[in-house]
């Protein structure tokens, strides 16, 4: 299969997006929503929420474009994810061991629970394992153009549009209006009772990545995508800021991966990179190399965020957050990529852990 250069670029920029998100979110709860600090955190948090959806879109474009035997899915891809999950969960358990006040047994139970659940960013690994398990089903879906579009439309309606609309109604329309509250409740109840699990979840982005990779958008269509993306970015920043000021509490109601505004962000970024020209072979080769280190960088970046803050007091609050968030994020990403690069030169670790 011909290498998709734009996917390498997307993987690198999506990794940076996730790092920046976690850096800005690390002090998101502890600052005053009326101040510049929280507003800067909200801005950065809002404009990089497309990171995880784009990761899934990349995977969909790469996996659904080729035949991957079930044996290989389990023996190579899922096995790697399972091993990586437990190895890195153990790493974080060891790195976060503190003095035990309630005895050794309590401490052992606590850390065993942490090992089973993983560090907070490890949820992605569990989710992607589930996606990999379902690849044969997705492959059947995308082989029929009508079924694929039908699947995407149902997913969008029941997992994006309806919940997002009812959330907007709750935040801005319902208020003390009992009739409107009942109406919204009925809609939510109907959607819940339909139990549309088949079209719910991250599978939408996985299939969407394949769909967008296969089709060619004309220039006018791309312009529309960029306009909608800009609206999505502005919506995420503005509405969450508005609700935070309204409630005087940090608000991330519209940060979710299944909010329409975030989907618009993800499609916009994906389209922007897909339709660029990548003429520099040297730079493409560099991005290709860095792209190979991004999985390991994702796994270890939280370690650097936490240690920079606890040991060096270097975090998003160290100076003006407008500057500190991207500076700390760049430092974390560079360190994470360097460590990942080293680990990728150790055969067994490269094969199973990064």
Q: Averaged pLDDT, please? A: 90
The main β sheet shows up as: none
Overall SS class? mainly alpha
Helix percent reads: over 70%
Shape: globular
> Count the strands?
0
Straight-line N-to-C gap: 23 Å
- Could you list the spans in which at least 5 consecutive residues all have pLDDT below 50? 99-108
Count of individual helical segments:
16
Q: Roughly how many Å is the radius of gyration?
A: 21 Å
Strand content: under 5%
Number of domain units: 1
Helix-strand string: HHHHHHHHHHHHHHHH
Give structural notes:
This protein is mostly helical. It has one domain (5-352). Helix content is 75%, strand content 0%. It contains 16 helices and no strands. The chain has helices at residues 5-25, 36-47, 51-63, 70-95, 104-117, 123-133, 135-142, 145-174, 178-194, 203-214, 219-247, 260-274, 281-291, 294-312, 321-343, 347-352. Residues 99-108 have low confidence and may be disordered.
Relevant terms:
single chain; 354 residues; mainly alpha; 0% strand; globular
What does this entry show, briefly?
With 354 residues, the protein is an all-alpha fold. It has 16 helices and no strands. The chain has one domain.
SSE diagram, text form:
Blueprint: H1 5-25, H2 36-47, H3 51-63, H4 70-95, H5 104-117, H6 123-133, H7 135-142, H8 145-174, H9 178-194, H10 203-214, H11 219-247, H12 260-274, H13 281-291, H14 294-312, H15 321-343, H16 347-352
Helix pairs in contact: 1-2, 1-3, 1-12, 1-13, 1-14, 1-15, 2-11, 3-10, 3-12, 4-5, 4-6, 8-9, 8-10, 11-12, 14-15
């Amino acid at each position: 299969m011909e290498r998709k250069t734009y996917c390498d670029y997307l993987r690198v920029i999506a990794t940076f997006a996730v790092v920046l998100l976690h850096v800005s979110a690390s002090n998101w709860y502890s600052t005053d929503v009326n101040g510049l600090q929280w507003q800067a955190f909200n801005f950065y948090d809002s404009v990089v929420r497309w990171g995880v959806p784009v990761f899934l879109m990349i995977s969909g474009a790469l996996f659904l474009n080729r035949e991957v035997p079930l044996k290989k899915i389990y023996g190579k891809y899922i096995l790697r994810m399972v091993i990586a999950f437990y190895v890195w969960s153990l790493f974080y358990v060891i790195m976060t061991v503190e003095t035990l006040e309630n005895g050794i047994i309590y401490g052992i139970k606590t850390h065993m629970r942490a090992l089973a659940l993983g560090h907070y960013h490890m949820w992605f690994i569990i989710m992607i394992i589930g996606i990999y398990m379902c690849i044969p089903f997705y492959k059947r879906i995308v082989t029929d153009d009508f079924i694929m579009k039908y699947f995407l439309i149902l997913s969008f309606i029941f997992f994006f549009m309806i919940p997002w609309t009812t959330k907007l109604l709750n935040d801005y329309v319902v208020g003390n209006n009992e009739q409107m509250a009942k109406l919204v409740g009925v809609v939510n109840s109907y959607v819940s009772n339909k139990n549309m699990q088949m079209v719910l979840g991250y599978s939408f982005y996985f299939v969407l990545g394949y769909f967008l990779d296969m089709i060619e958008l004309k220039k006018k269509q791309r312009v529309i995508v960029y306009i909608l993306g800009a609206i999505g970015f502005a919506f995420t920043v503005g509405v969450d800021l508005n609700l935070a000021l309204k409630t005087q509490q940090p608000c991330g109601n519209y940060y979710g991966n299944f909010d329409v505004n975030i989907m618009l962000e993800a499609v916009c970024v994906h389209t922007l990179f897909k339709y660029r020209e990548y003429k520099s072979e040297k730079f493409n080769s560099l991005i290709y190399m860095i792209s190979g280190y991004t999985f390991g960088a994702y796994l270890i970046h939280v370690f650097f965020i936490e240690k920079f803050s606890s040991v060096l007091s270097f975090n998003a609050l160290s100076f003006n957050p407008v500057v500190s968030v991207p500076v700390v994020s760049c430092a974390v990403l560079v360190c994470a990529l360097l460590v990942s690069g080293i680990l990728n030169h150790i055969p067994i670790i490269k094969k199973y852990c990064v």
